[in-house]
Write a structure and sequence with these properties.
homodimer, mainly alpha, Arc Repressor Mutant, subunit A, Tetracycline Repressor, domain 2, 2 domains, DNA-bd_HTH_TetR-type_CS (chains A, B), TetR family transcriptional regulator (chains A, B), DNA-binding transcription factor activity (chains A, B), transcription cis-regulatory region binding (chains A, B), HTH_TetR (chains A, B)
Chain lengths: 193, 193
Amino acid sequence: MGRWEPNARGRLQEAALELYVERGYEQTTVAEIARRAALTERTFFRHFADKREVLFAGSEALQECAVEALDAVPAAASPIDAVAAALEEAAAVLQDRRAYARKRHAVVSANAELRERELIKLATLAAGLAEALRRRGVGEPAASLAAEAGIAVFKVAFARWVGEADERELAEVVRESLGELRAVTGGASGGSR
Amino acid sequence: MGRWEPNARGRLQEAALELYVERGYEQTTVAEIARRAALTERTFFRHFADKREVLFAGSEALQECAVEALDAVPAAASPIDAVAAALEEAAAVLQDRRAYARKRHAVVSANAELRERELIKLATLAAGLAEALRRRGVGEPAASLAAEAGIAVFKVAFARWVGEADERELAEVVRESLGELRAVTGGASGGSR
């Protein structure tokens, strides 16, 4: 039981996603995931707290990549450009797992509990980017606004990307969406009353 | 038991919030809320599904007000101005219950489950505003971007407003934050790579 299983984590993730797509998330048990991956339940629980966490195990790593990319942006860059660099890095990570990301999105979208979890992860990412901006000396509310607006763009871009039949890169859709946000906000008169 | 209790709903909300502030949300029971309000548990459950819903009972009404305000904006207004009108209406609703809104925010912020619920309500509001924009003929992704960016602004503005000692109106903070979002996004070069 304690022996090392080659790529157990990745096999469990693939097996879980397959089963969630085939049978639905609610109907799938940890025992079934382990069996599909030809591993034991004990091995499953060495890698994941529960069947939900299989889908969110990559969130911390994704956030670390994004924050590192932000930290690496030259100090002279504007806050929104720094956020854009972070989001493009996150996009590149997801791009490498395009098929997985699309299937995962379908599973998450179909379940209220998973959608909630996804919103929390995005809020955590926004908070992490705002914190990284403040470390660069960006004041409030500019730091929070740039980070929250960036996450808003990322959400919209991601939804477009998973829905698109063609093979555009997510980073490209993120850049385009950010340009569209500028057009949307820049075209306004500055008040409605 | 079935008799009409004057303002039972409001009394239960006030009692619940008092107890959540005094003892913590987790430690408070429905029986205690009902007792504090001098009502029965049965009356509580005629108004709310559980102790969590006491805190979110106003969300649907808030969203309806916001969407109605958006629908009333002249067709010539830009999408972001239409969203701004919706958010200012929501701000006015919260302004009328400033003390309640601040206490509620403290309770929600202290509990992970409640923070999740709040994020879902905000995501639902964003989706409702995007839908209202599409009804006006705004295309995608402009509708989703304007709605999501508006909610990003509202989140940041609300957090500033509850944290401020002075007596500014939430609608004013929302307008100011939207202006700052414009400055943040408008000052960028359009790409980071």
